[in-house]
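Protein modeling request. Please complete all fields; requests missing the sequence field cannot be processed.
Requester role: graduate student
Desired output: 3D structure, token encoding
Chains: 1
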Amino acid sequence: MVERQKQIGRDRVSRLVSWGHWFAFINGLLAIIVGYRYLDTIGLPESFIGWGYLVISTIGHFSFLAFMVYLVLIFPVTLLLPYSRILRGYAAVVATLSLCLLLYDTVIYDDYGLHLSPFVFDLAWADLNALLRGTSYIITPMAILAIELTLANFLWKRVEKIRKRNIGNKVVAIVGICFVASHLIHIWGDAAEVTEITHFDDAYPLSYPATAKSLMESYGIEGAQSHKDQTPPKASLKYPLTPMQCMADSNPNILVIAVDSLRADLIDPSTMPFLASYAKSNMNFTQHLSGGNQFNSGMFSLLYGLQGSYSDAVDLHFQSPVLTQELANQGYQLGLFSTQDTLAVPQAIFNDFERIDAQHTDSFANSDLQTIKNWKQWQQTLTKPWFSLINLKSPESYDTPIGFLGIKTVKAATQLKPAQKVLFNQYRQSLNFIDKQIEQVVSDLPTETLVIITGINGKVFTSNSNEASVNLSPDSIHVPMIIHWPNETSAKQINYRTTHNGLVPAILTQALGCSNPASDYSSDESLMQPDDKSWVYVGDHRIFAIYQESEITVIDRHGKYRIYDIDYRKRLKKKLSAPELIEVMREGRRLYVH
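Delivered output (594 residues):
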């Protein structure tokens, strides 16, 4: 008798487990239907490869999510309370909450371009009224609960018939194959940079597709191919928002000297005497911020004029900056002068330039000397207006040429550790070397030349590259911006806050005669006028900081955030400032086509 009861109990649990598996599978299909809203945001694929990958990855991913919810929240209850009525009601509630959470995530992703995280949840809670419009947030959960209860009862009544058909193993095999195959295909797609596949990397929540680029390339499988050789995907970014309307009265030559790791606070007579004097006699933007603390993010904001959250947009691997497109349209000859190892993201950022690289061996200082020489030779051969970008790199590695007679050491204005003191004075030697190169270039320019001298990013005194990459303090961001306008000799010191994003509107409106509003192609207004925004976005899509009047909020890709005082010296124990952050998220989605 006891054995009989145990057998009945085991059969009941077995039936409940079988029912639970099918309930999870059907909810995986329902999750796929809800998840289709993500594709409305990022766009549908246009190739067979894209559709094939999307189908198998969608089936595998949402089925896996549904099974994990079952395994964690429903299966333990099956063993503890093996009563069908209780379990069916409980499972229906869990499934309803899960689908509602997924639906809420699709709304947030559509609005902010981010999935739910502690940071995003705080942000969305403050913006709840704008996100949830009407009464659908009440009706929808009730409708989903009704569907789940109906589904739970329907499956329970037919679970024995389903078990007898013995199709469960086939369904598991198909889902398992889809899950594994999607990761294997993504490994290949990532190594070969197939945008039809990698375009969907961040589309679904809790999605971490496998990558093995270095492994694939070590076995000789083709990878890292140029985006120029690929077919551009369907545009999801409308940049610019409207066609450019430009008609210039004249075409001045334009020179941009962009120096890696150039701090604004060391443009002084003892370190960079020429540039300090040049700043006093021209427009000097004293509160200027780069778009990032690294070469890629700083150069992206300088040439595209967009905040760094756009830097991973697939479209921009195929579309060069509006600035250089318009320069080319107006007959300018564009030249880029840097070193051989200068690789930038997005890959189309330098497409409009004639690129003349200096060879890099073991010294960026020697490369910079060759860069200046290359520019002088190029400039002497031109017969039409030109736009040249000179990128000097010595300060990034504290480099100077062998035999360079530098300047005497001084005490830093701020308290530094012993190792930092050494780096500080070596950095000053490198800046003094760069100052002499800038003087050579600027002193020999044609009269009708617009000159822009700036830093791509700032500098923190550390030899640890990982530490520097996540440091978004003013030391890493505050850079000089000095502009000489042709036929203007009056010196002017600009004390309102400006950013790299404002350079493109300044050139397009002041030099190229463009009448479009800056919002058509940039995240900021022109440098020539104060911006009414109370915040500045600094960084890329992986880690970024929001600079506000009295605090700096640093946020990583997982939604963790820290708030510092404006000097980045003290961590503040306070909550996010939601209104400004909501504006930041909206700006990061403004140019996407829905």
